[in-house]
Amino acid sequence: MAALLERRGARMDELRQTVEREVRYANISIIEGHDASQYGIGIVSARIAEMVLNDERAVIPIGSYQKRFGVTLSLPSIVGRRGVIEVLEPEMSDEEREGLRNSADALNKALERVRKQPKTKAAASN
């Protein structure tokens, strides 16, 4: 990938920043185009249902519980009739691996805060 980027006169860090920005703000683009985000959610949900029903074994980034990290993370995975069949570990630099670990740690900390909150009883309906 680095060689291809170099031939095009681009750099890996620039590509990484561009991809991160586009992924981070994709929902805003959907809202601006449709005045709501449920369209994007509906399209993705329908596509995942197709993959499962047709046992497509398609490779997509999808969230699933990662025992090694103790939280759900979106990683490239093979999806078919049984759901996530296999999680594919992409090649990562040390910096990327550290970023993934930091993300998992942040999710674990948030989960601990939620677990420590006192449970409230649902209001009884009349």
Please name the defining characteristics of this protein.
3 strands; 126 residues; alpha+beta; three-stranded antiparallel β-sheet; globular; L-2-Hydroxyisocaproate Dehydrogenase, Chain A, domain 2
Distance between the termini: 62 Å
Helix content: 40-55%
Query: Care to count the β-strands?
Result: 3
Tell me the name of the CATH homologous superfamily of the largest domain.
Lactate dehydrogenase/glycoside hydrolase, family 4, C-terminal
Look at the structure and give the mean pLDDT.
84
Model description:
The chain is built from five helices and three strands, in the order ααααβββα. With 126 residues, it is α+β, with helices and mostly antiparallel strands. It folds into two domains: 1-31, no CATH class; 50-110, Lactate dehydrogenase/glycoside hydrolase, family 4, C-terminal (L-2-Hydroxyisocaproate Dehydrogenase, Chain A, domain 2, Alpha-Beta Complex). It has a three-stranded antiparallel β-sheet with strand order 1-2-3. The chain is globular, with a radius of gyration of 19 Å. It starts with a helix and ends in a 10-residue tail after the last helix.
Quick rundown:
The chain has helices at residues 2-7, 12-24, 26-34, 38-53, 94-116, and strands spanning 58-66, 71-80, 83-87. By secondary structure, it is of the alpha+beta class. The protein has 2 domains: 1-31, no CATH class; 50-110, L-2-Hydroxyisocaproate Dehydrogenase, Chain A, domain 2 (Alpha-Beta Complex), CATH 3.90.110.
